[in-house]
Write a structure and sequence with these properties.
Two copies of one chain form a homodimer.
Chain A (H helix, E strand, L loop, with lengths): L18 H4 L9 H15 L6 E2 L2 H8 L14 E3 L4 H14 L3 E4 L16 E4 L6 E5 L4 E4 L5 H10 L4 E2 L10 H7 L6 H4 L6 E7 L5 E3 L13 H5 L8 E8 L1 E2 L3 E8 L3 H13 L6 E5 L1 H10 L12 E8 L1 H17 L6 E2 L3 H12 L1 H7 L6 E8 L5 H14 L4 E5 L5 E8 L5 H18 L15 H23 L17
Parallel strand pairs in A: 2-4, 3-4
Antiparallel strand pairs in A: 1-2, 5-6, 6-10, 7-11, 8-9, 8-10, 12-14, 12-15, 13-14, 13-17, 16-18, 17-18
Helix pairs in contact in A: 2-4, 9-11, 9-14, 14-15
EC number (chains A, B): 1.1.2.4
Protein name (chains A, B): D-lactate dehydrogenase (cytochrome)
Subcellular location (chains A, B): Mitochondrion
Chain lengths: 502, 502
Amino acid sequence: MGWGIATTITGGDGKGLLLPNRKAPTPQYASTKEMEIAIRRIREETGPLVDIISMDPEDLHAHGYSEWSTVNASSLPVAVAYPRSTEQVSTIARICHEYHVPIIPYSGGSSLEGNFSAPFGGISVDFAYMDQIVQFNREDMDVVVQPSIGWQDLNDQLADMGSRLFFPVDPGPTAKIGGMIGTNCSGTNAVRYGTMKDWVINLTVVLADGTVIKTRRRPRKSSAGYNLNGLFVGSEGTLGLVTEATLKLAVAPEALSVAVVTFPTIRDAASAAAEVMQNGIPVAAMEIMDEVQMRVVNLGGATAPRVWRELPTLFFKFSGTKASVAENIGSVQGIARRNGGGKFEFARDGREQKLLWSARKESLWSMLALRKGREEVWSTDVAVPFSRLADIIEVSKKEMDDLGLFASILGHIGDGNFHESILYDPNNGEREKVEECVKKMVRRALDMEGTCTGEHSIGWGKKESLLWEVGPDTLAVMRAIKAALDPRWILNPGKIFDRQAN
Amino acid sequence: MGWGIATTITGGDGKGLLLPNRKAPTPQYASTKEMEIAIRRIREETGPLVDIISMDPEDLHAHGYSEWSTVNASSLPVAVAYPRSTEQVSTIARICHEYHVPIIPYSGGSSLEGNFSAPFGGISVDFAYMDQIVQFNREDMDVVVQPSIGWQDLNDQLADMGSRLFFPVDPGPTAKIGGMIGTNCSGTNAVRYGTMKDWVINLTVVLADGTVIKTRRRPRKSSAGYNLNGLFVGSEGTLGLVTEATLKLAVAPEALSVAVVTFPTIRDAASAAAEVMQNGIPVAAMEIMDEVQMRVVNLGGATAPRVWRELPTLFFKFSGTKASVAENIGSVQGIARRNGGGKFEFARDGREQKLLWSARKESLWSMLALRKGREEVWSTDVAVPFSRLADIIEVSKKEMDDLGLFASILGHIGDGNFHESILYDPNNGEREKVEECVKKMVRRALDMEGTCTGEHSIGWGKKESLLWEVGPDTLAVMRAIKAALDPRWILNPGKIFDRQAN
C-alpha cells in the first residue's frame, strides 16, 4: 500500500469515532479572576512553609520565551510553580483541572520548537527542585530519578558512586530527563543505544485531573497491557506530567576511540555513512558536519591549539572491547576510503576525545555565540531512510548555501537524521527566506518517506509539518487519545496539534 | 516514591476523567439476526469473485479454541473472514462497527493466553491470505510485510534474495508478524536485539470504524507526534487491525557460536546469567533450561546421537566478528566458572548449532508431544529485575517440583524473563493446583517489582494479574484510550481488561 491511501480509504460513515474531536470548539480557559483563585488555592494547599509560586516578570519571561527556539508565542505564563514532590504536582493539576488553567511542564528549557511556550497563558510547572536520584539499583542496572536531573549530572553522579553504569541518551548538554522524555530525544549515541523511549522502564505520571499513576513496576521487559511508557515518552507533556522515571543503564565499554575523517563533498560523507550502517558495523556514534560547522568548531577553540580541516567531515566514536574497536575502525576506514575519505585523525588521549566530542555537542551553542546584533539561529531537524540521505543532504545544503547566510549542516547521520542551523537577521526580511528554505527541506524529507523531526519533536513550531507527515486521520487518532486523557485540554495546549483539526 | 502510592494519591474529585469508563455498562453486541445481516453485507461488499467468509464448524473451532492456551472461552466466533486486502479489512470493520459485531484478529494462532478466543462471539479475521512481502528496501534496511507472514518465512525469503539482512525477533517457530505485533513478543534474540516494538517503523491499521491510518512514513527514527507504533504494538488487536507493517532489519553477524554449560543448581545458573548482564557482555542470546527441560531436548532427539547432560543449563549464542565472539566467550566462561559452571560444550558445526537452538525454541511443542491421554500443558511467563532472578527461579522451581508433576523452567534469562511449563491432567483436580502454583509465581514476580508477563501478553487469561500489576488507576488510563478508539468495544473484546472495571 502506498502512503497516499491512508487519507483516501476511509470506512467511516462520516459519523465515526474521530469526528467529535474534529468539531470540538476551541477550549475555554479560566478568566483572569479564576486564574487568580486557582493560584491562591495552590498556594494554600502547598504552603505555608514554602511559596512554590512565582509571578516575577523575569521568571515568567524565562519560562515563556526562548532565544534559541524557531518560534515563540506572543503570550507568557501567568505564574511559575516550583513543586517539590509528586503530591504537589498532583495538587497543582487537580486545581488547574477544576479551574481550566493550562499547565506547561518545564525542565531544561533547551527545546527548539516552542515546546514550553504558553500560547494560552496558564502555569508553567518548573521541576527545578525535583532533580534528585531517588534510588540507584546497581544490580538491576537501573536508576529512579526526578525529572529535573540533567543527563550529564546523572552520569557524573553514577561515576562518583564508582559505578561502571551510565545513561547513554545524550542530547544537548543542558537537557534534563523530564524534557528528554517529553520529546523522545536522542543524541549522538542513538545510533548504538537508541532513543529515550528505549531506556524508560516506568514513569510516575500526574494526569490532567491530578490522579497519579505509575506505568509499570521495574521489569526491563514486559508485554503486560498497553505500552504507556511508549505513549507518554514523546507526548511533550500533553498527556500527563512526569514526576519520576526509572531508567535503564548501560555498562560503560572497556575501550573508546574518537576519530574524524574528511571528504571532498558532503555527498561523499553521507554515502560513506549510509554504507557503514548497511554493513552493520556497530559504531558507537557517527556524526556528519559540513565545512561550516567544522569552522565553528575551530572558532570555538575547544581543542586548541589543534585545528581541524574545514571540509565535510564524519566524526566517529568506536567503543567496545579493545579488539572489537580495532576491528570496527578497520572496517570503517575501508568504507571511508572507497567513498573518497581522507586519513583518519584520532583524538590523541581521553582529554582530547572529550573535548572533540563536546565541541560537536556544543555546536548549537557555538553557533549562538557567533550571533551579532539582533541575529537569531534557526535550527531544525529531519530524518529520512538511508538510501535518500546523500540526495537530501546535497540538495538541502545547496539551497541553504544559496541563501547567502552563515549556515551549516550537521547531524546524527547513522539514524538518517540531520540538522540545518542558519544564522539570520529577523529584521531585514531574512526570516521569511530561512523559513521557506527550512520548509522545503521538511517537504523533501516527507517526499522521501522521512519525518519532519528525528529528535526535536513538534512543539508549537512544527504542527503543520506533522499534519503533512501523517495526514488528518492519523492526527485524529492522536487527538482522540489526547481528548480521552485530558478532556479539558489543559496539558501543554497548542503543542503537537490543536484541539480543532487544522 | 514507592509503588503503593499510585493508588493512594488521587487528586481527582471523584468526577474525574477516568470515571465514565469505570461505570460503563457491559457492551451490547449484535443479535444473531443482526450478525447474519452483517455477514451478508460483508459478503456482498467483498464478493462476488471470492467468498471471504467461512462458517464451517471446524474452522470456527480452530479459530476459537487452542489446545496450548492456558484458558479457553466457552463460545466460538460465528464466522471466520479471510480478507485479501486492507480495503477488505476496512469493509469488515465498517460493517461490524455499524452492527456492533466483535472482531478478533488471527494470524499464527500460537499465543498462550486465550488471545484469539471469542468470548462474545463475533467474527475472527484470519489474515492467512495476507502473507506477502510487499516491498523490500535493501538499502534502507527495512521490509514492508503483510500480517500473516511468519518470521521464519520472512527470513528464508530474505536469504533467498541473497540479502545479509534478517529480522531478529524470534518467538515460537509458527508465530506470524501480525500476532507478534499484537503481543509485543520477543524470543531468544531479545537480549541483544530487543522486542517487537523496537523493530516496527510504521503500521497500517484499520480502526474500529473502518478508517485506515498509517502511523508514520519510513524514517528509522522520529519524534513527530505520539508514538502510535509503540501503542498499537502490544495492544492485542484491541485498538485496531494491523494490515501492513514496515519492519527494520539487522545485518547478519559474520561469526556465530553456540554453547551450553551446566551448573550444579538452577540458582547458580541464574546467578551466572545475571552477572553476564551486569558486566555488559553482548551475548547474542542467553537461555536457561532446567534439568527437566534438558531431558525434553534429549527425548526430542533433535541433536541425536549427541545427548546433553540433564542438569540446570545455560544456552549461549555468541555473534559478531570472529575476534569479538572469541572475546565474549572468554568473558562468559570466566563468569560461569566463578558460579560453579562446568566446561563449555560447543555446537560442532552450523548444522548442530541450528538443531540445538531449534530444540530450545521447540521446547513448548516438545512438551506438548509428551502429553498422554487427556493431559494439557500450562505455560506461562514472568519477568523480574536481575537482582531477583536467582531468588524467584529457585523458589518457583521448588514449588513447582512439589506439585509432583512433569514440569520445567526455561526462559530468556538475559531479559529477566522465564517460563514455567507444567504437564497436568485436567480431569483429576490437577488444574487447580497448577493454577495456584502459577498464580503464586506471578504474585512473587510482582512483589519483586516484576511483570506478570515478559512476552506472552495478557489475553483473556491474565487480566486479573494485570490489575494486580498496575493497579486500577493505570488500568483506567488504558481503558480510556480503548474507549476513545473503539467506543463500541468491538475490537477483540474481553482481552487485556474488561470494559467494566474489575
